[in-house]
Amino acid sequence: MSSASTATISRLSTLDATFDQHLGALLDWEGVSDSAVQSRVDEILSDVKKRGDAAVIEATNRFDRLSVEGMEELRLKPEQLKQAFDNLPAEQRDALASAAERIRLYHERQKPTSWQYEEADGTVLGQQVTALDRAGIYVPGGKAAYPSSVLMNAIPAHVAGVREIVMVVPTPDGVVNELVLAAAHLAGVDYVFTIGGAQAIAAMAYGTETVPRVDKIVGPGNIYVATAKRAVFGQVGIDMIAGPSEILVVSDGQTDPDWLAMDLFSQAEHDEDAQAILVSWDSAHLDAVAASIERLLPTLDREAIVRESLSRRGALILCQDKADAIAMINRIAPEHLELSVEAPDTWLGEVRHAGAIFMGRYTAEALGDYCAGPNHVLPTSGTARFSSPLGVYDFQKRSSIIHCSSEGASELGKVASVLARGESLTAHARSAEYRIRN
C-alpha cells in the first residue's frame, strides 16, 4: 500500500509492487461463509417448513423483539397501505409517484415477446414467454428503510405480468416505515407481512397457513437473508445473493472533488461493509478528493458508518491512463460504475463488466437509486461478470415451442434415430422411427 494516505481512506497505485495483493484483499467479500450463521439458518428453515405460522411467529417475536400472538398481527391490510400513501406529505407522495412512473416506463421496454417461425415442410418452432404466478419481495428493515426497493422489485414484476406479489419487511421493535407501506400501495403489492430474516424467506419458499408460497424470491437483505436465499434455491428461484453496496468512480480529474467525495459517501453510508473506490490517473486530483473527504465527512448524518466503510473497504487508486482504468473496471466488475469523464460514450465499448453505468459528470449514482428508471437491484461482489440487473425478464420464463408436420417429423426422426442409437437409448430411437415415413 502506498505511504500516501489520509486518516480515512487508503491510497493505492497500480505501480506499487504489492498492488494486486492489496486490491485482492480490498475486494474480498463472502457474505454467507459463517458456519454458525448457516447452522442457525438451517434450523429456522426446517422449523418453518415443519410448523408454519407458529415458527414464523416465534422467530419474529424473538429477533424483532415483538410479542404478537397470531399471523393476523403481522399482516398489513390493503387499506393500511392506502392510508399510508394518502397521509404522506404531498411532496413525498408526488416524488414516489414520479419515481414509480419512470421505473414502469423503463421496464416496459424490457418486455420480451413470444415468437414462432415456420419451416418449409410446415414444422413450426418458437418460444412462448409467460410470467411467474407469484413473486416474493424481501424489503430490508433495520438500519435504513427502503421504499425505493419496493418500487424496484414490485414494478418490474407487475410489468412482467406476475399475478400476485407477496412482500415481507421486518419491523424491529414494531417500528413501521410509512414510506415503505405507501410504496407497496403504489406498486400494487397484494400481500404485505411484517416479518424478516430467514423466517420470512422460509415462509415464502415453503408457504405457511397464512403466507402463500411464491415461485421466486427477490430483494436484498442481511447475512441471514442471503444465506437463507441460497439454501432455498431450487425450492424457489432467487434473483441473486446480494453483498454490500459498492461504487467505482473513474474521474479524468475535471470533476469537482466535492461532488466525487459525496458520490463515494452515498454508497459508504449504507453500512460499514459497503465499498467506495475512486480511480484516476491525476495524482493531484486524488489529493483534492481526499481533502474533500476529510472536510465533508463531519457534515454527514451517518458519519460514523461512512468513516468505518471508507477505512475498511474504500480506496483512492492512482492508475496510469485510460487503458489502465478500463482494466481496473473490468477486474472489479462493480455494482455501480460512474464514468465521470469527458465523452463517456467512448468508454462503453470497452466496459465489459458493470451492473449499472452512470455516464458523465452530472449523473450521480444516487439518481439511479431512486428515480432514473433502470433497476437499482444490481449484481455485487464481482458478479457483474456473469449477472445482470433485476428486470422484467427475472419474473418471466420461456417455453420452447415445437410443432412438427408429418414431413418434418419424418426427416427429424432420421437424425434423432442415428443420434439416439449412438447413445444406446433405443426407446428414444424407436419413438422417433415410428414417425418416419417409408
| Proportion of helical residues | 40-55%
End-to-end separation in angstroms reads: 76 Å
Largest sheet, strands/sense/barrel: 6 strands, parallel
Average pLDDT metric: 94
The gyration radius over C-alpha positions equals 25 Å
β-strand percent reads 15-25%
How many DSSP helices?
Answer: 16
Strands of the biggest beta sheet: in what spatial order?
1-12-11-10-13-14
Morphology: globular
pLDDT < 50 runs, ≥5 residues: 1-6
How many β-strands, per DSSP? 15
User: In terms of structural class, how would the helical and strand content be classed?
Assistant: alpha/beta
Structure explained in plain terms:
- The protein has 438 residues and is α/β, with parallel strands linked by helices.
- The chain is built from 16 helices and 15 strands.
- The strands form 3 sheets. The protein has a 6-stranded parallel beta sheet with strand order 1-12-11-10-13-14, with helices on both faces. It has a 6-stranded mixed beta sheet with strand order 2-7-6-5-8-9, with helices on both faces.
- The longest helix has 19 residues.
- It is globular.
- It starts with 9 loop residues before the first strand and ends in a 5-residue tail after the last helix.
- The N terminus is likely disordered.
